Amino acid sequence: MKTNAAGEKVFYADYTWKELDTLDRSKAVLILPSGSVEEHGPHLTLASDSAAAEAVTAEAAAKVPGCLVMPCLWYTPSVDTSNYTGTVSISSNTFTSYVCDILLSLYRHGFRKLVIANVHGGAKTALDVAVREFHARMGTASKAYADDFFIHLHNVYVPAIAYLGEMTEGKDWGHACEIETSLDIYMDSDRVKLDETPEEYIPWREGLEWYIGDMRAVNENGIHGDATKASVEKGEKAFKALVDGLVEILEAVRKFNVPPSSR
Ligand SMILES: [Zn+2]
Hints:
The chain is α/β, with parallel strands linked by helices. Helices cover 38% and strands 10% of the residues. Strands 2-1-3-4 form a 4-stranded parallel β-sheet, sandwiched between helices. The mean pLDDT is 94. Zinc ion binds next to helix 2.
């Protein structure tokens, strides 16, 4: 069972209900990892995002006292990669409602701080909507918003974008690419087909760096980047950068005093 330096259990699901019942839940910082069940090229498994979400959150939580990692959201929206065999995509309405129910359960049990640690680009917008929807649902006839549940949506790659970009030798990175392949090699090289790493890019339209559509129609392998340039050294550096970015957020949320409800 994974514990932090103070001997506290790191995983939420490793606690019994009585242990959680006696915990100071208003001070605990919950972490909800968000990944995907999604194609990651011919060389990485469908677990790539969820495995990264689980590993990064576990490592970061062990470094900050009072953090509990929830079971990962594996099934999330993956619209643009839906036509690759294996991807499981949840519609935004279903997903938003599902995440809201999780937040509601935690709120009812007295948890007041939560960090969503998302590694999957396809879930970013729906998670943002889910948090807003939760606050809206908690409103009363005279007052909107559950201001006594502090929820922070942390997109794990965002603080490290410049650093990872500098590390990249290929033309670009973004999906099952040099960075994600390096991370997977570092975390568990058995999950990587090292002799099948491709280089391929989503063909952006001139001046339009945004793509939502059937990725399979324009990209044979289901990747955006040069996976041939991946290495365990890059994976270790990338992993540490993602963990450091999350630790910074966890420290800030830990220090934050959540006000009593004003509703
Ligand atoms: Zn990914």
